[in-house]
Design goal:
By secondary structure, the protein is α/β, with parallel strands linked by helices. 28% of the residues lie in helices and 31% in strands. The strands form 2 sheets. It has a 6-stranded mixed beta sheet. Strands 5, 6, 7, 8, 9 and 10 form a 6-stranded mixed beta sheet that branches. The structure holds glutamine. The site of glutamine has 11 residues, from strand 8.
C-alpha cells in the first residue's frame, strides 16, 4: 500500500463542467487498489513542492481566469517544466492545456502569453466548438476509444515535433476542427479539450495516469485490474449516442 499525492491547481478558478470529477475518479481507483490518495489544492501564491507530488491536475477556465492563473503559474514555470521532463503525470484540461503553449489569442485580438513549454498556438475563432466528441487513441499501447465533451473558442495547432496528439477525432471538433487531432501528449503529460468527467467514462485513461504514478515510485507498473462493468457500460452508451447523433 502506498500514499499518493495529487496537486489540484487553482480549483476555485479552473473548474468548468465539473472537471474535478477526474480527481475523484483517480482517488477512488487508487483506493479500490488498496492505496491512499491525498488531493491537495493549490491556490494563487501557494507553494507547490513538485518533488513531493505524484501528479498535477488542472481544469479549464474562462479567458479571465486563465489570465489570473497564468500570472501565478509563470513564477513556477521552471520547476513545473523540470517535473514534466522527469515524467510527472500531468492532466491539463482546455484552458489549462492552452496555457502550456506559446500564446492564446482571444476574440478581441488580445494576446495572452502562455508558459511556452511547447510550440503550440491557440487562436479564438467563431463559432465555439461545442458538443460530444469521440476519439481514437493509442495512449495505452493499443487502440481504444475516448468519449467526452468539448466547449472551446480556441483553435489549437501543434507545431512541435516532440508532441503527439492525445487522439484522432472520430466525431467532434478536436484541437481546431480542421486537422482531425485532439489534445497533446508529451511524456506523462496529457493536454485535452475534453471537459467534465473524462476519466470516469474512460477508465483506461485513468489507469494510464495511475500506472505512470506507480512506475515513478518504482512500484510494479502492472496494476490490479478493476471490474469496470459500470464504467465500460457508461463509455459504450455515450459512444453509441455520439456515433448515432
Ligand atoms: N477560454 C478558452 C476557450 O474558450 C478555454 C475555455 C475552457 O476552458 N472551456 O477556448
Amino acid at each position: 500500500m502506498a500514499r499518493f499525492t495529487i496537486a489540484h491547481l487553482y480549483p476555485d478558478l479552473m473548474n468548468l463542467y465539473g472537471d474535478r470529477g477526474n480527481l475523484v475518479c483517480l482517488q477512488k481507483r487508487l483506493q479500490w487498489r488498496g492505496h491512499e490518495c491525498h488531493i491537495y489544492s493549490v491556490g494563487i501564491g501557494q507553494n507547490i513542492d513538485f518533488g513531493a507530488i505524484d501528479m498535477v491536475f488542472m481544469g479549464g477556465g474562462s479567458d479571465r481566469e486563465q489570465g489570473l492563473v497564468y500570472g501565478d503559474l509563470i513564477k513556477r514555470a521552471d520547476a513545473f517544466r523540470q517535473a514534466i521532463e522527469a515524467d510527472l503525470p500531468v492532466l491539463c484540461i482546455c484552458g489549462a492545456y492552452q496555457l502550456l503553449g506559446e500564446s492564446y489569442i482571444a476574440a478581441d485580438g488580445q494576446r495572452l502569453q502562455g508558459l511556452g513549454f511547447f510550440n503550440i498556438v491557440t487562436r479564438v475563432a467563431q463559432p465555439r466548438l461545442i458538443g460530444n466528441i469521440l476519439l481514437e487513441t493509442d495512449l495505452v499501447g493499443q487502440k481504444t476509444t475516448v468519449v467526452g465533451f468539448e466547449n472551446h473558442g480556441g483553435r489549437t495547432f501543434l507545431n512541435d515535433q516532440r508532441l503527439k496528439p492525445f487522439g484522432r477525432v472520430v466525431k467532434g471538433h478536436g484541437n481546431n476542427g480542421q486537422d482531425g487531432f485532439e489534445g497533446m501528449k508529451y511524456r506523462n503529460l496529457v493536454g485535452t479539450y475534453l471537459h467534465g468527467p473524462l476519466l470516469p467514462k474512460n477508465p483506461s485513461v485513468a489507469d494510464f495516469f495511475i500506472k505512470a504514478m506507480a512506475a515513478r515510485r518504482g512500484m510494479s507498473s502492472t496494476i490490479t485490474p478493476l471490474y469496470d462493468t459500470i464504467e465500460t457500460f457508461a463509455h459504450q452508451q455515450v459512444k453509441y449516442k455520439i456515433l448515432n447523433s
